[in-house]
Amino acid sequence: MSDEQGAKPYYEAGPYVHYCEHAGCKKWGSFGFAVGKAAPIWFCFEHRPEWKPRHEAQPQH
Predict the structure, then answer these.
(1) Is residue 6 part of a domain?
(2) Is there a contact between 34 and 40 (Cβ–Cβ < 8 Å)?
(3) Given 7, 28, 35, 49, which residue has the most CB atoms within 10 angstroms?
(4) Residue 33 structural domain
């Protein structure tokens, strides 16, 4: 909790807007992918990466 009595939470106006990051595509980016704490990159349905499930991507020892 804040000790400041007049503090108000900050809200950005409007929805988050992110478009597909594939070259030349202007569609809505509804699939966001990030590794670790990196900023997500967004893709539309047609350009989303086909990543392997986690258990398949793990190195086999």
Answers:
(1) no
(2) yes
(3) 28
(4) 15-47
Q: List pLDDT tens digits, range 18-53.
A: 999 999 999 999 998 888 899 999 999 999 888 777
42 neighbors 32 (Cβ within 8 angstroms): yes
Cα–Cα separations (whole angstroms), residue 36 to 39, 47, 58: 9, 21, 16
Residue type, 57: A
- Per DSSP, helices labelled H in the chain are 54-57
Cβ(28)–Cβ(44) under 8 Å? yes
Count CB-CB contacts under 10 A for residue 28: 14
Residue 61 belongs to a domain: no
Residue type, position 9, single letter: P
